[in-house]
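Q: Joint fold for the lines below.
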Amino acid sequence: MAGATLRDVARRAGVSIRTVSNVVNASVPVSEELRTRVEAALEELDYRPNLVARNLRRGRTGMLALVVPELDVPYFAELAREVITAARAHGYVVMLDQTDGDGERERELLGRGSRATMFDGLLLSPLAISADELRTRANRVPVVLLGEHIFNGDFHHVAIDNVAAAREATEHLVAMGCRRIAAIGDQPYSTGETAQLRTVGYRQALEQAGLPVDDSLIVSTPRFHRRLGAQAMRRLLALPEPPDAVFCYNDLLALGAMRELTKAGVRVPEDIAVVGVDGIQEGEYSSPTLTTIAPDKAHIARTAVGTLVSVIEGTAPPPADSRAPYRLVVRDSSRRA
Amino acid sequence: MAGATLRDVARRAGVSIRTVSNVVNASVPVSEELRTRVEAALEELDYRPNLVARNLRRGRTGMLALVVPELDVPYFAELAREVITAARAHGYVVMLDQTDGDGERERELLGRGSRATMFDGLLLSPLAISADELRTRANRVPVVLLGEHIFNGDFHHVAIDNVAAAREATEHLVAMGCRRIAAIGDQPYSTGETAQLRTVGYRQALEQAGLPVDDSLIVSTPRFHRRLGAQAMRRLLALPEPPDAVFCYNDLLALGAMRELTKAGVRVPEDIAVVGVDGIQEGEYSSPTLTTIAPDKAHIARTAVGTLVSVIEGTAPPPADSRAPYRLVVRDSSRRA
DNA sequence: CCCAGGTATTGCATCGTTGCAAAAGGCGAC
DNA sequence: GTCGCCTTTTGCAACGATGCAATACCTGGG
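A: Joint structure:
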């Protein structure tokens, strides 16, 4: 059961431990004869290097941690997939954890008893943690932030231009002839600012189009879940003058809203057009299919992992915001004559 | 940058390394005076234990690996969430990897150069790997299988009763008055047998209801994705005598099929009723909402992690199949007058 | 036949921590 | 005053691997 060590193999092959190590790592030339003998012994004992020991010696683990609020949120699942793939390309594996949007959990990650020493770098999609906290706590592990911005200049950060993306989504609705466009997902009280940036973009688009900004059309939601999208939509439908379009700050909100509309017998997009953000696969198959701002998740993952690896290797430039590309994908939920 | 070690703290507090270790681990009583001094030093140097070293010494890493085919498949994402939660309850963290259903990738996991020595146990949702391979390769790491069965008696295994579940789903359609019930998702050629078991249950239900089994109504799909569900549905619609219901082997297939039906102007459930398997959140908000067989994912995760932990600790009973509970959740996609 | 120079092989120390068992210290009992 | 016991503290070795530098070996040239 207990695995064979270099020593066991060395004894069996009648060579030194060091020689076995040399064969295993192929770093130093080894004579044909010994190599054969050692390889036979390796085979017979089914040797596997103990990576914990190797990591201790080398001072690196080859593991990255990816921390997201909720893994069952499709955006994060799809992003995680890309991150794992990107990490593999760099020779890293990924430890995955979720915080449930709990600030306590995020702090744990960086605190005293954490497993932070077990991975070489951290990809964090923060929700509740603040800039100061992160700065004072994350002095050990290289960090790259995903999505939420938190604070200027202190950390590497990868995300789309939220203002521009939101503006573009709203402009699209304007171009489709919508005049009373609601927004679902603002978070004026939150520590994170992604939602607030999207509100800025939404307002910009309305103003540029010469449309009035009606605050009763902006519905806040504490999280970005389907249920909350449905709930928000219900409120909008109850207004004396309901909207003719909704820009949702993510696809789950949009899908929840669409469900509510369908249930209420409101036609999408004829009566109310819907746009989301995230470009999750679910939106390709919903009824109707969902128009969305789709960030290039593979790009985000590659950039974030690449940056993190260069931070680990000490070859990274100073922290900077990286703007990831996105596309407006127009589908049925907003396609009007 | 480089973290302080026990030695640094010891030097600073003027005590032995061992005493610092005792304070940190609180395992052995330490006098009030020294404890205070050591704790001050720990604080000043912001000491964090090097977990790699600790793991080497203790021979355990506190990490479990969860390997699934695809993380962006909602079922696996939702399951992963539960697994991470269950693992945390046992003091473990989770390394997550995906195989893309690639047998090669699965083999790598267990092979020579793998990171298998970095985690204490493996939760594997296999797709392509065979029983023999697993048996000869997984002699090192404790393994618990999720979903796919692979082989009797060699490995701990957690899954629902696929025959019964499929039978129940089909019976439900029969009870709703459907008489020409199709099945999407058979995999007669696959190494895995989940799909085949579901086909068995489907046939049993039809036979018990006295309905003919029409092989042209059983559509195979190599994977369980939305696109393939849509494709399969297209084929069924093209039949001279299309079905009046479809049992899909998972929710993604069902959602793909429903999309195709909506596009074709076929009403669900009036013209064709649809049932899926997996109980993913997406089905609660699709239009129409999706009837599904919902395995208790939290139960699966808890059982699997609990079993794995007991295998690791050497207190596990011999390998056995564990049947996880599931529920038939009836929603609009199959609700007929 | 010996030596230089290169290659192949090895021993030792080390990564940071913990298990074990011995040493040191304190205190009451005889 | 001394012994023995209990508590606190410590030193040493070990987990399994690799970096470094020294040794052993080998070949060809003088």
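Q: Anything notable?
A: Chain B has three domains: 6-49, 63-159+297-324, 162-295+328-334. Chain B touches chain A through 51 residues (CB under 8 Å).
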